[in-house]
Amino acid sequence: MAKEKETKKYAADSIQVLEGLEPVRKRPGMYIGTTGPDGLHHLIWEIFDNSRDEAMAGRCSRIEVTLLPGGFVRVVDDGAGIPVDIHSKTKVSALETIMTTLHAGGKFDNEAYKFSGGLHGVGASVVNALSVHLKAEVHRDGGKYVQEYAIGKRKAPVKKVASSKAHGTIITFKPDVEIFKEGVVFTWSRIVNHLRQQAYLVKNLLIHVVDAREFGGKIDLDNSLFLSDEKLDCPSMSFYFEGGLVSLIKFYNSTQKPIHKNIFYTEKEQDGVFAEVSLQYVDDMVSRITGFANNIYNPEGGTHITGFKTALTRTLNTYAKKNNFIKDGEDSFTGDDVLEGLTAVVSVKLKEIQFEGQTKAKLGSQEAQGAVASVFGEKFAEFLEENPDDAKAIIGKVSLAMRARKAAKAAKDSILRKGALEGMTLPGKLADCQSKDASESELFIVEGDSAGGTAKAGRDRKTQAILPLRGKILNIERARLDKMLASEQITNLVIALGTAIGDTFDMAKLRYHKIIVATDADVDGAHIRTLLLTLFYRYFRPLVEGGFIYIAQPPLYKLKYGKDFHYFYTEEEKDKFLTANKIQITESAEGEPEEEEPTEVVEEKKKTKKVTIQRYKGLGEMNAEELAETTMNPNNRVLKQVTIEDLASSDKVIDILMGTDVSARKSFIQSNAKMARLDI
After folding, report:
1. pLDDT tens, 242-291?
2. Is the pLDDT reported for residue 627 higher than 60?
């Protein structure tokens, strides 16, 4: 229940108006980053963050997010409820002011909210402006108040519709398809992962997630505050954690092998910044550092992460030298050395917070850097002294990383020297394109010399380069960089890309802005594709994040009858075409993959006609003309762009599927077997 004295602080005059709302629909990307899937889901985060800030202020203990039929989203909290009395400056209700005015919100009032995610009046009004319909329901002061909006404009004044003993806010909105032209399709796993993360960050906050999009029964939205109390027969999850960041570290490392027993944790407020840090090293070669500012995830890091990394490197070097792990005259640990195998969460809370952009991807508040460095550095030094076994294991891990770094540098130098001596930097297998303009150049990575020969014959020589791979590349998830660079296949790819790798990676030197993985449509092809994507994710992540990686979608079937022929990319497309044209094919008609142009008799209405149908299993089965027309010609081809929706989830899946934990991989496969589409 909300405390009376706290509720009074958050009243109409707590809302400060800074400017109007008009620019939002004209330039939505300025406020939500993109009008694609990221921006669409960002609408949920903005409304959820308002409720989450109520919990941080001590006025809310429960939040529910529900996906409803028709593209609607409903967010409920049991906070104090948005004020509905008349605002002294705008002369309309505080609720209407918040929902229809940019830069209007209670988060400017330090008494109402000690810590918040920033300009959340912006968030509510932006969601309203980008929604074809939004309904706000407020339970407060003994009443239930309602106001509805269309594209950011009110339909009527706030109205008290009933008495109510409850307290809280319900926001129901439907994003506008005119803004989100890729479609209003929410991803359940993405929402669950984000809200689970938030539950770890706010102790004792209960979060429900309900997917009622396919629910066929009646949902009582008018008389139910929390739909999870209704026990609807639809997918739902609830999260509640008391362990905070330590619990989050355990979750992140659930499929990893820790190298030390105790998980480090500290929290302290310094210079107006409340800093929390938790970490643990694991037997892995990548780092996983997650940053939060006022409980908002910062995928691009920021000043708090910079302060953490600086203090981590300094503290480990100081301890190693003091305890003779590093002798006089020997090299010190670098920032890359101390990060290998590290899982860490850095969370800060500030009264006046600055982000770089409305999407809050990167923290810009300078005071966070010094505060985190000081708070973490002091306590981590104590942790190392008080836990010598843990300290020895950590120093051993970092020392191994340093030796591997030196070996990798030697391997990279060797590759560069070899290229210089041979008077060339491009591998012999690469059939390069004529253009030197990376923005129009494409690199097709194909499987084997057969597909390579076909692709070379069918390509546009001006803009399309072909790199054939021989067999399966090394699984880099289980190999260090120096071992990777001993693989000719990987070094050929690294040299072809032009960016170098590791600490010398330079995005500006990328030679192709489309890197297209074109492997066969069988199990081996899928495995090679997975190995390549793992390589790109671990060592060329900026290419994935920048949208440069694609997967080719060659057709599965070619159907020919008479002078007509059609390509089908899925079984569903083929079956739909056959049904629409009343063509019935006997089971043998599709033949075995190795048969060329199998001819079968099919039955059509009133006559018999011969057709040929071919099932492609490899690019080498196509001739150059077919491959060019279906897979390489930009006017006809279908490409899938590789993106990262959730960094932590992506990391976890790659760890499970490509790492060394066999039991975790077996469990994952068993749990997700029904989702697999097998082609045996």
Report:
1. 888 999 999 999 888 999 999 999 999 999 999 999 999 999 888 999 99
2. yes
Residue 438 has pLDDT above 90, yes or no: yes
Active site residues: 447, 520, 522, 524
At residue 448's C-alpha, the angle toward residues 538 and 457, to 5°, is: 115
Q: Are the C-beta atoms of residues 465 and 437 closer than 8 Å to each other? A: no
Fold designation for 4-239:
Heat Shock Protein 90 (3.30.565)
Could you tell me how many residues make up the chain? 680
Which residue ranges make up each domain of the chain?
4-239, 245-405, 425-554+618-644, 557-615
For residue 597, give the amino acid letter: E
Question: For the chain, what is the radius of gyration of the CA atoms?
Answer: 29
**pLDDT higher for 433 or 102?**
433
pLDDT digits (tens, 9 = 90+) for 522-576: 778 888 888 898 889 888 989 998 999 999 988 888 888 777 888 888 888 888 8
Residues whose CB is less than 8 angstroms from the CB of residue 277 and which lie 6 or more positions away in sequence, other chains included: 245, 264, 265, 266, 267, 308, 344, 345, 346, 347, 372, 375, 376, 379, 380
> Residue 32, Cβ neighbours under 10 Å: how many?
25
pLDDT of residue 667: 63
List of residues 6+ apart from 5 with CB closer than 8 A? none
SS3 255: coil
425-554+618-644, which class in CATH? alpha beta
Model confidence at 430, pLDDT cuts 50, 70, 90, reads very high
Give, in order, the Cα–Cα distances in Å from 278 to each of 265, 341, 343, 345: 4, 14, 8, 5
For 245-405, the fitting CATH number among 3.30.230.10, 2.30.30.40, 3.40.50.720, 3.30.70.1490 is 3.30.230.10
